[in-house]
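Dear support,

We are seeing what looks like truncated structure output for some complexes. This example has two components. We would appreciate it if you could run it in full and send us the complete token output so we can diff it against ours.
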Amino acid sequence: MSKPTRATIVAVILLLLEFQATVHPAYGYSFNGPIPVVISNGTDFYPTSLQTSSGKLWLAWESSQVGQSEIYYSTYDFPSATWSTSQNLTGGPQNIANQAPSLAQLRNGSITLIWSSNQTGHYNLYYKLFTGSLWTKSIRLTSGTFDDLSTRALVSPNGTLWTAWSRQTTSASCMLGFCRQIYYKTLNGNDWSTDIQLTSDSAWSIEPGLMVAKNRNIWATYSKCSANPCTYNIFSQTNNGTTWSSPYQLTSPSTTTFGDENSEMAVDRNGTVWMLWSRDVNLGGGVNENKLFYENSSDGGSNWTQPTQLTFTGTQTMPVDDVDPSIVQAADQRLWLFFSSDPESSGFNIYYFQTNPVYPVHDVAVTNVAVGPNFLIRTIVNVSTVKVTVSDLGDFLENVNLTVRATGPSSFVLGRATGLFGSGSTFTFTFQVNQTSLLNGRYTITASISPLPGESVGGTFDDSLQYTFLTIVKATNPSRACSIPRLCPI
Amino acid sequence: MKKLLAFVLIVIASLLAIPASTLSARGQSVGLVCIAATGSTSCPSGVPSFSGSQGSQLTVTVFLEGSDPIGGFDVFVKTINSVLNPASVDLSGSLITSPSFTTECVNNNAVQGSCSNAANGLGVVEVSTIDASGNNVCSSPCTGLLFSITYNIVGTGTTDVSYPSNSGCASSVSGSDTCVLVFQNDGTVNGENVQIGSFANGPPDFSVTAIPNSLTLFQGGSATTQVVVSSTGGYSGPVSLTSSVAPIVSNGPTSSLSSSSVTLTQGSSSTVILTVSASLSTPTGSYTVTVTGTGGSTSHGSPVAVSVGTFNGVLFYGSGLKGLGNVNVTATGGLQVWTAHLNNKGDLGQSITIRISGTSSAGPYTATFSTALSFTGKATITFNTNIPSRFVGSKITYTATLFFGPSQTQSPTSSSGSFKVSQ
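Here is the complete output from our reference environment:
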């Protein structure tokens, strides 16, 4: 293909500028629905959704039957706007209950399904992988004489699979004899971590939600009940890659109700963080029902809107429960909000809302910083290469200014670059560090791009990415260098 | 007679050479005898489709692939002779390079040898031969042409190019009397599979057939039937499908198809499911559901007779099944008190089962209650189910399904809701 002429490029830019001038912002958001997605025997709960890299939207759910419950899934094909025939993924022996599935896509493209099953007499977590054409057999993930329930899963940008769940144990020291805490574990490569306890106070913490934010922090939400009778409040904690923040209370429902459950979070293309949950609402006359609520944050989760009620149907004589929401930024640029509902009190089926397309948005992200070698040894290894990958995740042609800084014993600008990025394009910039004029020590390499005109605050949280650490050491024995660099003194 | 003599000679030779117990033994590998196009060097991956205009000729080959060594064969091929009428056979290029003791029967007429086997007849070709060397002509895996058949295309329609079966045939096809026999020079019968061919030369078309073509359902119920869409005359392409109900009446039955179109290849079939549903207010009586397939400018319909009968089961009415909004449990659990609003449209004493299926943050919850109804018409019953203590602090969302009668038919109505579990 021949290179475009300068005149062509100018014309394209002018066209794009014209486009920018005529489009209108997508926000506010509007919701279309509810739309039925799974009509079966009316016993469908706990939908969980995943937008895969292949373009298909996956949906899994729990279908409850007497004596047992199964996990089903279906995929949505955008071009044909059709759902595939639902498939039973458990189909095990009778009298086995399978609960609350969760989906995530590994970096190698495999889809993992994690759920809870009581086939050992207690609820333990199990998972299986879809490798492109076949599902693997079920693999037990947790074991013990407790009940692990309501799992959620995600894959972080570095490829780590996170799964969180609520663990119920019996103990006289816990409220009403039951302890309910949030646990999580991670899969790095082929290695699962141990079960790690996230919450540890005397309250009950149940039904976690997981989200990875644009700044790569992992968000965990959960419902907490501190006293009997329960009113559940939603709390959140964030993990910055090293430590968890303290719990932060996100909702304060009426204390005369059962409160807020089933929290789910997602970040949309514009960087807006959404939380969706099910709230117990008193209809009077001693009748309650669950309704979906949401709130969102345009600044990465520092400030939130007031809770907004999304579903309304239901009366004292015919209450309608809307429960188990799942929210996903789909490939059609819309947010899809799945939930389970019994609109005519005649059985629970899966429904969804769609937002208007989150389009157009300005969003350029630093998607990777790689440094190699990350140990420089005086007189032996002097030069390191820093590669910074930048991607235009938005819908505009963007002029990107990239700055790469090193901070440590001394701080300095390692390099700058500019580039014109089209929507969907990716480019890797390469810089070099020569240690000869630098002090020994550990340096953090930070690659940042300047906020784009029109970029939302939420969209800027992926404008910067750090690499830790580039280390410069002296050679203890120049003749042998430092044979084990990580043990070399700084 | 000549063929029989050949086989007898082989058997005698075998008796001289090897123990009698091995005479009926089959070879080590199972090959494939197939119908293939002329010039083929292997069997086709599936059933090959042939076509041709009336008045012309068609030549097909009978091919062997992956067999144990062979010293001879006796193979029959059958067609509907009003469409494909066999004209001649040809051993040119055959694995049997020096055919001897050859029998060639065409339409029960002996071209060589005699047509003594009862499998011969109109539309049937028989070719049997052994190699004059008395040796096997190839080693395993043995692949190549057995013989060719030329047909006169004398009509329009469809026919398989297949192998007849007859109790008088020795067979290489395990456990059958398919008239396909491939053997080694010592008389050992090779094990072979067979693959037929198909011929069609009518105008490209398709058919739409409902199986079964009559359904009986009750008010509030539904029933399904299969609709088979088949390619005829070499038709290939999409066929769109619709269904309609006649007569059109208020609250009449509704119909739906599992797919609104199928795509056919030559000789293929696709099946979709037709579901006919009646509501509780559907007038009883007879209806006709017509499934219409349209491909290009051609449409074909298939009628399904539907009879809707009176519902005589049990329904939820009003608020259906409701329990306490809050169930208090102790360390040993608690009781949910359910009230079921039931409408028995059947007989006194009708048995029912209510199955409650739900879930919660403490895991799924299920319970079952069965009884015989002591009323007809509308009434309420109450019953209790146990709530284990582990559900304390959770909200259970549930769906109750209702079954009735001796075969425990599922009622068209169900009920759902939620309740809290506290202490």
